[in-house]
């Protein structure tokens, strides 16, 4: 399987690339800086990656890079870039649509604020107190809903290098809604109180970059259970009584 990673030197992208190599996929890295990529990968791994150094905002370059790829993982940009972040995602999605030899399978990065809050019709990004730049994820999500591509949007909380767990845990994965238990009484809260409740529990959504990368690669095939879904991740104690 051939997978292209946009933003392959970033915190998420470099882990997707490294894990993809270990899983035996044919990995392509689309980057601005090849030297940074080679430094991160090491000489051995670098031999197993096709590297494209080009402008991610250039439609022709992106379109050519997508030719004959089975999947694309968009890990480029961040919400703090504002309009540029939205344009990066829109350009790649548009070229995915136009490139006839591209399979149509796409993962993009969102955030936990895109996920639905159980017992409500709300998402975190629209609540008072959430950083306004998070709404750039909303715009990317809206763009995906306009396309016929087989997309998924990864919506983790804060991603960190690794997490020490006092008890055995497993990765709990949800679609469309937050991956933590929410009390039903939340439907009686004001939006400000809902926001405060979520902020008080934000550490429950901390997740390791490597687990985010693995989840995307484990669900990289066309027509899977995450097709056209928002995906949430959280750790759940194996001691939890079901």
Automatic annotation (TrEMBL):
Highest taxon above the source species: Bacteria
Matches recorded under Pfam families: NAD_binding_10
Residue stretches making up the NAD(P)-binding domain: 7-162
SUPFAM superfamilies the record matches: NAD(P)-binding Rossmann-fold domains
InterPro entries cross-referenced by the UniProt entry: NAD(P)-bd_dom, NAD(P)-bd_dom_sf, Polyketide_Oxido-like
PANTHER family: FLAVIN REDUCTASE (NADPH), NAD(P)-BINDING DOMAIN-CONTAINING PROTEIN
Protein name: NAD(P)H-binding protein
Native organism taxonomy: Bacteria, Bacillati, Bacillota, Bacilli, Bacillales
